[in-house]
Amino acid sequence: MQLAEIAAAEHGAMTLGLNVFGYNTVARSLYESLGYETTAAQMRKPVRL
User: Fold this and answer.
1) pLDDT digit string, tens, across residues 13-34
2) Which candidate, 7, 29, 28, places its Cα nearest to that of 16?
3) Is 37 exposed, middle or buried (0-12, 13-18, 19+ CB in 10 A)?
4) Residues 6+ apart with CB under 8 A from 42
5) Following DSSP, what letter does each residue of 1-49 receive, concatenated?
6) Angle at the Cα of 31 from the Cα atoms of 27 and 35, rounded to 5 degrees
7) CA 40 remoteness from chain centre
8) Predicted local distance difference test score (pLDDT) of residue 5
9) Is pLDDT at 49 greater than 90 in this prediction?
């Protein structure tokens, strides 16, 4: 992750984003510990007849 941040900065990126499933709490905790913040939430509900 740190190498990706360095490479992105070297190529002029101002931000770096990623997607993670909401239920993946381990990955979410890792990303938060690296300084990532939640910027959006996607929700869905099964449709039943």
Assistant:
1) 999 999 999 999 999 999 999 9
2) 7
3) exposed
4) 22
5) -HHHHHHHHHTT-S-------TT-HHHHHHHHHTT--------------
6) 165
7) 9
8) 94
9) no
Tokens of 11: 């190529």
Q: Given a cut of 90, is residue 3 above it in pLDDT?
A: yes
Instruction: Work out whether the CA dihedral 39, 25, 19, 6 comes out positive or negative.
Output: positive
Q: What residue type is 49 in one-letter code?
A: L
State residue 16's pLDDT score: 95
